[in-house]
Amino acid sequence: KEELNNWAPYGLAKPIPANLRNYLGMLDVEAGLGPLYMETAEAIQNIAAQYKDDQKAFKKKMKELESEAWEDFLDMTISQAILWAASNIMPEESRSEIAACEPYFIGSHSGASGAWVSGPEDLDTPYKWGYGNMCTVKGLFACGDASGASSHKFSSGSHAEGRFTAKEAVRFCVENTALPKVDAAALEALKKEILQPLDTYAEHCKMTTAPDINPNYIKPMNYMWRLQKMMDEYAGGWGSGFKTSKSLLERGLQLMAMLKEDSLKLGAANVYDLERCWENQHRTWQAEAHMRTLLFRDETRWPGYYFRADKPKMDETNWHAFANCKWDPKTGEWEMMKRDVVPLIP
User: Fold this and answer.
1) pTM of whole model > 0.85?
2) CATH 3.90.700.10 residue ranges in the chain?
């Protein structure tokens, strides 16, 4: 509780926010109190305890709870259910080990990151520039994990926002019927750029006997591991204890610039590889935006997700705000901005 006081008012909320639960577990591991366990058996037994005087009803309830446990985890955390099966764990009988995982972008599932979208018409917010949940790019909509500034969109929240966003997207199409005028030469150039990894691979693949090792291209899997390693070591990943700093982020951005140069040499052996090449391009943009935002936000806002070791405290005075980033395709420059948090409920 003493540690949670350091992160008030969020640390005093009930239930404890997900990132702080992660953080407390990480502190336990650092103190030699690991490994950490999820007590599914105890939780299931406690729920079924009300039927303990009726053995038949108790067994039936236990079977229902066992089924629900598998269903819930298959719905939300498939890897945990796979781990149970691989480790011979029956969740109603034994506990299972848990640990902080490798870095990934969780968006608005249990964070506040994502695309900056227009607010709905019926709410009094200054962040409104058209159709509900439309991004700052006209005609592009985002919802669920993809839209930011809302940190509790699990399955039901994403479903509700998805319905709303779909209706707004349909309204946009109905009310904007004029087809865009696009230069045919620009389209051809875009097609060539999209298919370039196939041509790069076909041109150079015979130069080596091992197709994954070639001085003229980089395969998507190798590129992905390189990006993952960079984010892990410089942007507060698992291998660095989720800690980063100004110096680490600045070095990471230098390496990111070199990686982006090499992204022009991605090679695809087939259509599946081509898909992976462009997934890597998207990941690279997301990763750079993340690094720049960590560097811009001069505090630790989400301990348990990341920790700025050089700025280990939360600064509510100066940083009770959203951090936005924007890339200008004409200049190639990034712009970092603070946005006020506007409470919708007084």
Assistant:
1) yes
2) 2-98
Question: To which H or E segment does residue 291 belong?
Answer: helix 271-296
CATH assignment, 2-98: 3.90.700.10
- Does the pLDDT at position 44 exceed 90? no
- Residue 132 sits at φ, ψ, to 5 deg, of -60, 135
Q: Give the SS3 label for residue 324.
A: strand
- Cβ contact 259:284 at 8 Å: yes
- Strand partners for 324: 337
- Report yes or no: 44 and 65 within 8 Å, Cβ to Cβ: yes
Whole-number Å distance between alpha carbons of 29 and 201: 45
Report how far apart, in Å, the C-alpha atoms of 35 and of each of 12, 23, 38, 79, 306 are.
25, 14, 10, 18, 20
Structure tokens at 132: 């509900």
Torsion on CA atoms 56, 60, 66, 71, rounded to nearest 10: 180
Phi, psi of 321 (to 5 degrees): -160, 160
Q: Where in the chain is the domain with CATH 1.20.58.100?
A: 184-340
Residue 36 exposed, middle or buried by CB count within 10 Å (0-12, 13-18, 19+): middle
**N-to-C CA span, the chain:** 28
Alpha carbons 159 and 165: distance in angstroms, whole number: 10
Beta strands in the chain (DSSP E): 36-38, 96-98, 243-244, 307-308, 321-327, 334-340
φ/ψ (deg, to 5) at 212: -80, -10
Question: How far is 122 from 132, CA to CA, in rounded Å?
Answer: 10
Domain covering 184-340 in this structure, CATH number? 1.20.58.100
Provide mean pLDDT across the span 101-111: 69
Give per-residue pLDDT as tens, 202-261: 999 999 999 999 999 999 999 999 999 999 999 999 889 899 999 999 999 999 999 999
Q: What pLDDT score does 92 carry?
A: 83
Give the mean model confidence (pLDDT) for residues 1-26. Answer: 90
